[in-house]
# Entry
Amino acid sequence: MINFRKVWRSFGFARQGIVDLFRYENNAKVHLLIAVLVLVAGFWLEMSRVEWAIILTQVGLVWAAEAFNTAIEKICDFVSPGLHPQIKAIKDLSSGAVLILAVTAVLVGLLILGSKLLAIFNG
# Structure
């Protein structure tokens, strides 16, 4: 039997994690600002449903990667508060994963939004 009270509490914990991500993590705030700009551009350029699905997937992936990166960094700092070469490597890899997704999201955004902007400016 599903304990719906536990499920509801889990959603509360997850919501708090999302709030904390955007409240305390500078890079998450940058990703949020860019996402808002992309969403406004998407409405203005009248993206199709498929284009919306692709853009929203990219936004979600970048935010999720940022959340995982933040969690990994916090665990590393807890386990090893001082400087350690392995901890540095772990943090660098985690940050690199976010960068890979962010660059991919930019490229996808340029493909979708850029082509629409070119069509507008070329008449």
